[in-house]
Amino acid sequence: xxxxxxxxxxxxxxVLARKWRPRQFASLVGQEHVVKALRHGLKTGRIxxxxxxxxxxxxxxxxxxxxLAKALNCEQIDRDDADPCGKCSTCLQxxxxxxxxxxxxxxxxxxxxxxxxxxxxxxxxxxxxGRWKVYVIDEVHMxxxxxxxxxxxxxxxxPGHVVFVLATTDPQKVPVTVLSRCLQLALRNMxxxxxxxxxxxxxxxxxxxYEGEALNLIGKAAAGSMRDALSLLDQAISHGAGxxxxxxxxxxxxxxxxxxxxxxxxxxxxxxxxxxxxxAEEVCALGxxxxxxxxxxxxxxxxxxxxxxxxxxxxxxxxxxxxxxxxAEQLQIYWQILIHxxxxxxxxxxxxxxxxxxxxxxxxxxxxxxxxxxxxxxxxHKPAALAAxxxxxxxxxxxxxxxxxxxxxxxxxxxxxAEPRAAEPGAAERGTQDTATKPASFVLDCExxxxxxxxxxxxxxxxxxxxxxxxxxxxxxxxVRVPIRPLAELATVNKVKDLLVTHFQKPLRLSAEVGAVGVxxxxxxxxxxxxxxxxxxxxxxxxxxxxxxxxNELGAQIDxxxxxxxxxxxxxx
Length: 573
Prior knowledge:
A hairpin with a 2-residue loop joins strand 6 and strand 7. This protein has a 5-stranded parallel beta sheet with strand order 2-3-4-1-5, covered by helices on one side. It is elongated, with a radius of gyration of 36 Å. The longest helix has 21 residues, at 522-542. It is α/β, with parallel strands linked by helices. It has 5 domains: 31-186, 3-Layer(aba) Sandwich (Rossmann fold); 192-253, Helicase, Ruva Protein, domain 3, CATH 1.10.8.60; 258-367, Zinc Finger, Delta Prime, domain 3, CATH 1.20.272; 374-414 and 438-520, GMP Synthetase, Chain A, domain 3 (2-Layer Sandwich); 523-571, no CATH class. It starts with 15 loop residues before the first helix and ends in a 19-residue tail after the last helix. The chain has helices at 16-19, 32-44, 61-73, 89-96, 113-123, 145-156, 176-179, 192-206, 212-221, 226-239, 246-253, 258-270, 273-285, 290-308, 317-325, 328-344, 351-364, 374-390, 451-454, 459-467, 490-504, 522-542, 545-554, and strands at 50-54, 102-106, 133-138, 162-168, 183-186, 469-474, 477-482, 509-514.
């Protein structure tokens, strides 16, 4: 345990964020572009009188300001890389906050014009010990307007021995007149990989055991801030009793572990909504934040998308298996659902309900595989669509032996592999005469799209009839296409088949495949009719004299989305 308590003359223990605060340019992580600019200025003597450092919290703004102050006044500076030595009295005094020519001012608590006037009054005097006077103003955007006005003249014509370093997390609030007088350096958020690598180095020096996955979790949770990462690392050491373990970090962050994510992904790809619901209950019972689950799933989907498009490589066989099982379009839909689910989570009745519905939405909304190759899909669907349009729509009046009948449009429909071919010997025949002259085992007495309104039904059965497209009728076998996978499940298909058998009094068989449907489905026809009625209603409303008077005289506007056609009794069934 001695390694956790480094010897220090002031305090027996220092938190990692203070102990590992960089003291030289060489030890800074992730800000190479800023370091390069400052080093060039120090080497060539092109020292700007005012620097403005911008960036989110914990990325090194005041740390860089302190290193710059040491480099300007260091007694033994390295001329090659312009790094302060860190050992001379000047560097040590600046690190301890006791250097008289270096002043740090927190603008959040010293934002008035009086404090600024006092600072500027002292700035005119020459340095006491060093070559430069350095004034660091942190959170400079918090200064009052009068304080900004007071410092403008000094920023425009500063004394030759003064350097101002302004730091802010919100540069938009700094007046343009101040921005124009400063050399602005934007600090970047550090990547989670860079943070994890730096934390690993810290733990190795501290002689603390750790798990790499735990550091990756901390790196992502830090959101680009190294200071936050080191603070989280301190917490993880405490939670892990002197070690950094993955389980302890997950419990500390309220995050979901990878095994649970794997189970969710497997259940999603297996099409198991019951398992998705149970997993949502399980993770919420463990106290895991639902938002962190959706966020972790979004990260996973992002990685799968990049892997699917060969943008990254992965040695994880499970990741490669998931990527192979998903279409790129499907992953994009997953991404949108997860982002929207996380956004809408505060509106849900509770965390578990929001998580459950987001997972079920992932299961319910699936893209059409044909969208990945529209040309091939069109070539595949065109013969089937022509066959469906060529069907006669009169019921059969006399039973006919199936053996004597060739299949209609058999070139575009293949029999199911699981069924014995002897059941339909006519399947191998290819008719050469016109289909209208051939007897058929079963023909419809109406359009397929009209069945939903003619046969009493509800639920998935009604959705099946409304959204399906007829491909072909082969003897007593009806083949259709549905747009989403849940409608093609065996239980739903069997319910629709039983309904058709009862209605037509025929020994019918029904099979469904998932794919892109045309515009002749009942749902498409109904949507087109509703759009036409709404357009007509909108046109009639725009031509109404009273409405025109309201628009012309009062500047009123018509909201097209609010216009609904009038429901006529004749349209009700």
